Amino acid sequence: MASALLTRLPELQPLDERAARQALRGQIARLEQELIELETTAKVPPGGPRLLSLGELETMRDRLAARAADARTEIADRTAEQEAYRVRIEEMLLDPAGHRWERVTNADIGEPGCKSFHVRPRGGILGMFASWWRVVISSGCPLAQ
Q: Is the pLDDT of residue 73 over 70?
């Protein structure tokens, strides 16, 4: 019975990957062009292109200025937060016992990589009771497997 089913299935042609890629790229190009045309049509007023009035120009300027101010504020906040983490690392290095179990990563200070600064007891549980704290600096990201 199984051999009868196998004989009835049409023989599959090998996939022509090059032709498939070319067809997909063509479809993507057509969709991108359509999207550009739709967005352009949606933004142009019904009467066609025209000069903006002073009020419209001022409104556009104010919106752009507000977006720029928001971006500047966000960058300043992020920079201040990263600087606070850098100060915390310095404090951890100077007084590990005062920062027990704290961890600061490269992501916290805005740097790439996986390195972290972690305050741990030296000598395990005995070091914890004896207050032998130290900052362990990781060597970075584990190897990808």
A: yes
Give CA–CA dist 139/142, Å, rounded.
8
Q: Does some domain include residue 79?
A: yes
Q: Which two tokens stand for residue 139?
A: 């060597």
DSSP character at residue 97: G
Quick check: 134 pLDDT over 70?
yes
Would you say residue 51 lies in a domain?
Answer: no
Residue 80, in any domain of the structure: yes
Buried b (16+ CB within 10 A) or exposed e, 67-84: eeeeeeeeeeeeeeeeee
| Model pLDDT, residue 18 | 82
Range of the domain at 136: 63-145
**Number of domains within the chain:** 1
CA-CA distance, 99 to 54, in Å (whole number)? 58
Q: Record the pTM.
A: 0.56
Q: pLDDT per residue over 75-100, tens digit each? A: 999 999 999 999 999 999 999 999 99
Residue 84 lies inside a defined structural domain of this protein: yes
